Each structure stands twice: as structure tokens, then as C-alpha cells.
Amino acid sequence: MAQTDEKILCIDIGGSHIKATIVNYQGEFLHNYEREKTPSPPSPENLVKLILEMASRFQEYDKVTAGFPGFIKKGVVKTAPKLGNDLWKDYDLKNELQTNLKKPTLVINDADLQGLSIAEGKGVEMLITLGTGFGSAIMSDGILTPHLEISQHPITKRKNYNDYLGQASLDKVGKKKWNKRLKRVIGILSVVFNYDRLYISGGNAKLIDFELDDNIIIADNREGIKGGMVLWKQFGEE
Q1: Which one has a higher pLDDT value, 84 or 191?
Q2: What is the pTM of this model?
């Protein structure tokens, strides 16, 4: 059984940066963020090397959680659209981190990690992340549902959600058209998922310039990494 005084090293792997901190089972931050640019090229070898170096900056922790920007199945990377699918396909990230860090480890999609942290546990809650790419998570009464890689779903004949709302798209079409696209996507998600509450996270959430419905909340990016604690509570004792 989990001990309530255990400390969890939470790692958030993104397309542009990697963040890490320590939280306890009460969700309290025990250490300031460590933050580094995602290595280039973002190969498994380069990324794991950087994570291990960052982990060495923390003195004590009992377990590890890592959020990864792609589809994860039992700790194994199946897709990594922001880091290179060919580089990462079938890479056992959980085993690699657990072997090197010598601590029990869980690996999950990065948006799922944030969703677990932010959800209040009431009805259907959805999170979308607006950053290098487009991420999503869905919770039902606070319990994570099977991950849907919505970012890869087509929204036009030639674009998926990543292409439509990711950083590259924002840079190309500009803030005004990007906001118009986002408003359209929110309308689609509302009809498809009938969420009770939608959270919007990620660095580009601050660029939203239209009025949001009462059940849509801009989430604090800093809070998202605490999902590493919630994940152990939900799945760590199975």
C-alpha cells in the first residue's frame, strides 16, 4: 500500500521543454521546478540522458511519474508526434526510467497527467492543451478514461488537430485566425463529448481573445504536473 509520506518525482516531457519537481501525496510541491529545453534531436537516448541528469538534482524521492507527449501503452511509446514517431516507436520508456532511477515508475500521456491533476471529480471533465501541439484528456468523476489521441484526428482534409492548432500553425496563420480555429474546435468538442467542464492549459492558452462559456476554465500550467501523485493513487497499487 502507498505511504502517505512518500515523495514522487514528477516529470513533464514536452515538445519544447522538460520540467520536473517533487510532490507529496497531499499534492504539495516540495521542490522548485527544474526546467530544461527538450534536447535536439529529441531521441530516446538524448531525452533519457537529460531526465537522469535532472533527476540527480533531487535528493530524495520514492516513486516516479513521467508524462510523455504521445500515445503510451503500458509504459511503452507507440506514437510521439512532437518528438518523432520513427525515433520513439515501441520504446519502453517506463522500463528505461525505472531501471536507471531504481524507483517504481509510471509513464502516461502528458495531457492525461495534467487532466488528472486539474479534474475536480465531478461529471465529465475534459482538458485540452495548447502548446507545441494539441493534447487532450477526459475524466469521468475524476477517473481517467482510456486515452484518445484526438490530436491525430482529422479536422480538415489535410490537417489534424495538431496541424490546426499547434505552435507551427499559430506562427503561420497568426493569432486572429488561430483564435477562430480554436473557437471552432471548442464547438466541436462540446457536441462530441458533452463535457460538464472544459479546462484549457498550455503556454498558448494565454492568447485566447474570445469569451469562453461559463463551464470553460483556463488552467494553471504549474498545477498540471501534480497529476503524477494522482496517477499513483489511481493506478499504482494495481
Answers
A1: 191
A2: 0.87
